[in-house]
Amino acid sequence: MFSNLRAQGRIAPGTRFQQSLPTPFGVVAMFVRPHDIEAVLPHYQKALFAEVDDIVSRVPHGDLALQWDIALEVVAAIEGHTPGLLDIFPMERLAELVAAAADHVPAGVEIGLHFCYGNPGGKHIIEPRDLGNLVSFCNLIATETRRPLTWVHMPVPIARDDEPYFAALRDLRLPEATEFYLGLVHLADGIDGGTRRVVAAQRARQNFGIATECGFRYVSPDAVPRLLDLHRQMGFLA
Q1: DSSP states of the chain
Q2: Which residues is 210 bridged to in the sheet?
């Protein structure tokens, strides 16, 4: 269906079909006690990677983009929502696991990383203090991966249009070819709020694209055209 719509011109030429998946750790850590995660993780990872293999065997690589959604690593471990989890899984180990997931995707398929603070009911489980932890984590992942990352996305809460939130972006170390996106588009305050966040972010990093904080899942269908138009308007700012 996607290919047919693209052939008809209803989807722009060159657009890829995106499949988003939670990381193996992100699923296992949600259901398994911290000290048992290492015992369960290899088995779930093997099963999930087999599903990735199935997907990439069915969809032409040049038509496909795969995004790993990285939430439990950030919220439960790095930000401490699950006490003691970071002692068992330090940031370096979490970076190795994300890199293994990225490296499992064939080179012809675009690969993205979406860092997330959870989004149940459209609200973060924990509000980030700033982007410092995500920048440190992303830098570790970038040094571990053997294949190029196509894009990286980090969230920006609606209330954060202050310089300190973005300051750590000065230390972000991504390959030049990797696209970087900030999730600073919010329907609730539109172009005015988005402009404030773009201006604050540009004081730390000039080169970035724009996106929503955590996808379109909690946007009502009738609001999607307005949200897409907001992306178009803000795209001229970033």
Answers
A1: -HHHHHHTTSS-TT--EEEEEE-HHHHHHHHS-GGGHHHHHHHHHHHHHHHHHHHHHHS-GGGEEEEEEE-HIIIIIIT-SSTTHHHHS-HHHHHHHHHHHHHTS-TTSEEEEEE----GGGS-SS--S-SHHHHHHHHHHHHH-SS---EEEEE--TT--SHHHHGGGGG----TTSEEEEEEE-TTTHHHHHHHHHHHHHTT-S--EEEESS-STTS-GGGHHHHHHHHHHHHTT-
A2: 182
Tell the residue number behind the tokens 């329907």, with chain if given. Answer: 187
Q: Both tokens of residue 19?
A: 């499949």
Which amino acid is residue 104, in one-letter code? H
- Give the C-alpha separation, 120 to 199, whole Å: 28
Rounded-to-integer distance, Cα 209 and Cα 34, Å: 36
Tokens of 74: 């950030």
CA distance 204 to 193: 18
Q: All domains of the chain, ordered by start, with CATH?
A: 16-235 (3.20.20)
Question: Could you give the CA distance from residue 34 to residue 234 in angstroms, rounded to a whole number?
Answer: 42
pLDDT digits (tens, 9 = 90+) for 86-144: 999 999 999 999 999 999 999 999 999 999 998 777 778 888 999 999 999 999 999 99
For residue range 26-79, what is the model confidence (pLDDT) as tens digits?
Answer: 999 999 999 999 999 999 999 999 999 999 999 999 999 999 999 999 999 999
**Nearest partner of 215 among 187, 236, 178, judged by Cα:** 187
